[in-house]
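pipeline stage [seq->struct] | target=HP domain-containing protein | organism=Ambrosia artemisiifolia | residues=618
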Amino acid sequence: MLESNKCYMLDGDIQIFVWMGSITSITERKTSISAAEGFLRAQEKPVNTQLAILKEGSETGIFRSYFDDWPLTVEPKLYEEGRGKVAAMFKQTGYDVDELPDEDEKPHIVCNGTLKVWRVNNGKLSPVPVVDQRKFYSGDCYTVQYIYSANGREERLFYIWLGNKSSPEDRADAISLTNVIVSSNKAEPVLARIVENKEPSQFFMIFQTLIIYKGGMGSGYKSFIAEKGLDDETYDDKKTALFRIQGTNRDNMQAVQVDQPAWQPILIREGSEPDVFWDALGGKTEYPKEREIKRSIEDPHLFVCIFSEGVASQSSDLKVKEIFSYTQDELTTEDVLILDCYTEIYVWVGHNSVVKSKQHALSIGLAFLEKDILGECLSTDTSTYVVIEGHEPPFFTRFFDWDASKANMLGNSFERKLAILKGQTQKLEAPLRNSPTIYSKETTPNGLRRPSPTPNGLRRPSPTPNGSIRLIPASNGLTRRQSLDSYTITSTSPTFSGLDFNPANNRRFSSPPVPIMIPSASSPDVHSADNTHVSASSTAEVEILPSKDSGPKKELINYPYDRVKVNSKDPVHDIDITKREAYLSDEEFLEKFAMSKQVFYQLPRWKQNKLKMSLFLF
């Protein structure tokens, strides 16, 4: 009776059914639903009459009961895997949607950890008793510490929860006081700022059951309402209160206190509104007819922050650049990056970046929300997480094809890149303070090891396979620190010729600076790899003399850019892959880098690396 290429309407008196065949078009389905709504208005049906939309194969028992010959069992069909979703789609979001909302979100961290809650009160954080940790007040601010296990270690997550009716003073105190706790924690916990009604689902999963009362218990709320002349709405268990229960299952339930109704509602069907209804709203205008659903975070956007004058604290100071088709390798230690997931954002802070506090990182996240780069109408109340390099939680790493060995490496970008090229992706360990040597015998190439000091303060020469070493006395006009600041270790080895081991620029080591080894044929006056002139009359030098079997140092051969870049289709072989730019001619170097080689090598090493990466030379 019911054909698959047609739509039908069934009047069940208290319920109207619209049945849609499996091969009907979207236009036919829209027309059928509109016709059913017009039928309801024309027949002046009661406002509580339901309109049920059914797809072929997803008929309810009530609908089947109107047919005498409906089979008791129906064989499932392969194309009916998502049956029932069309009706839900139309009822939830109207008739023009991209996709259905996902089912219950799975937690990305262990939800059976340890909770500790503080309330902001009188400029201090007051611990909340365990029995009251799941009871919040909308007029207060709270700090939540959650300890859980992940990646074989103990992780800490701090939330700053800001109530909708909380005072500005309490909000500022909550952020600053929480930052003090987080900064004193050596485990580099994740810090998140969230606002009432904008909480991420993960927050509710951690609490499992959360009650939010009206009013507040803190002194900040009491002072705020007294100053504004507002009534105290704080919950009183001796009075009647109305709560809205929300959540998808027993593991993320919330009870939110709402206003009690003081009037009798009048039911009005959409499309049949009287004039008095529109007059109360200021007149009839166009309005959205689709239900707002939870936005997907399956396609987040990654941005790198570009700071004016090194630091950004105001929205006008922050500039960002989007990174398309990003990977974990984009998280460079010198940068601050923002991962925009629509419903929440993550501020990732590298160890060698200009941002040194989580409170500063939160202000950068707020500046990003204010700019609304993608025009998403982001609210400044959007949940903001601060993640420190090397301490990325699972709910952050899920957005990447994550390699833990890369996350555990130390050093700047150049040192990490070189370690990966050499296959040394294991964690690099910094030496202990007061360690007598910087490099171990196993990790330091011959010729770069620190020789032991002689009684006159100079280093004993160490023989190398490639040459001999000569000591040149230092002038008394400069201190040892001053005389070493401009030195660079160089080697005839292609692997290490591009490495900068300047102790002044290497924050990983606390031992005294290493001596300098500068290759030279005969003269003590040479130029280092950074074009820094070194004079024997003013500094102490350790000069490597060429051995008998080593020929004179050759000038580098120039190659076209297309042959020396990393992704070249016709690459040049037997070149120093850490110094690809050095093989460019002066003219092509100036064209690509917009600066001369001399200017380029005076830049900080990390900046050189970033420029080379942008040109596929690193």
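stage status: PASS
auto-comment: Residues 208 and 250 are 7 Å apart (CA to CA). The longest strand covers residues 141-150.
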